[in-house]
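In this section we turn from sequence analysis to structure. A common task in structural bioinformatics is to predict how a protein folds when a small molecule is present, because the ligand can shape the pocket around it. The inputs are simple: the amino acid sequence and a SMILES string for the ligand, here nicotinamide-adenine-dinucleotide. Study the lines below before reading on.
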Amino acid sequence: MLTNKTFLITGIADKNSLAMYVAKEVIKQGGRVICTGLGVSPHHQNLSEKATTFLNKNFQDFKLAVTEELGETSVEILDVTLDDNMASFAQNLSEKGVELHGWLHAIAMDKTIRNKEVKPLLEVTKVEFCDTMDVSAFSLIRLTHFLLKYGVLQIGASICSLSYIAAAKVTFHPYRNMSIAKAALERITIELADELGRSHDIRVNALRFSTYMGSKAGNATLTEDDLATADRMSPLGNAFPLDLAHEVVHLFRPDLKITGEIRHVDGGYHITG
Ligand SMILES: NC(=O)c1ccc[n+]([C@@H]2O[C@H](COP(=O)([O-])OP(=O)(O)OC[C@H]3O[C@@H](n4cnc5c(N)ncnc54)[C@H](O)[C@@H]3O)[C@@H](O)[C@H]2O)c1
């Protein structure tokens, strides 16, 4: 189904990342993947020792997981907060003659969620608000910009991003600041779908997934009780990462006429509560 197609997969932190399930399924369907992980790039400046240690460990874990789960796979450092990092990453791909038939945005970060608790919105600082928005939403625009600027993203490509019902409804578990970024991510999806559909025949869709505790991001936010509650609320029970991967791969298929959609892969969680 995806034979001779290459996809960029962002957002792998470890083997439990949702993006890892997507990467595996793309490969299973005959496609190739290029995976990016957060690490120290030549474009980082004035990093504290703590930040350097965190980023180095993150990249090592990412690389190890990719090798173990996907075998020989191209890996690159990518921090979406740095324009220079994104630009040189895209330029590099272009110089290697890489042609991308799509990419997965599976990136989120919110420092106002700590130890399963969230800051009230009124206490969120401008920096915390803008950082969450930058990493979790604006990066969809910015990375697409550089991939197109350097001629890497092909005409007819498919872009998917991962969202959550919190973009539209107040959740029963901590989320607040992140909800606003998810709402922005979804609106960006729709605006880009219009813009890029007309200019490059490129499709842009978002997928709202179930609550999932297996990943680092999910584990920072959710408890076992939250998962059980969501499972009870969902007519079909919580969806699994593989269900999500199947749907992303479906949307990655060439020549689909689906764009600007906010899809639910959540066992029907969105129709309740
Ligand atoms: N876990 C859930 O319950 C759930 C539900 C619906 C949607 N999602 C979304 O799925 C996506 C993937 O999350 P996950 O649950 O697999 O968790 P994860 O922790 O495995 O993935 C989050 C990724 O974001 C990356 N990231 C953070 N800051 C970055 C930066 N500056 N530059 C580049 N990458 C950066 C992290 O390195 C990590 O790989 C996120 O957008 C998340 O909001 C998760």
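The chain has a mean pLDDT of 97. As an exercise, try to locate the residues that line the nicotinamide-adenine-dinucleotide site and compare them with your own expectations.
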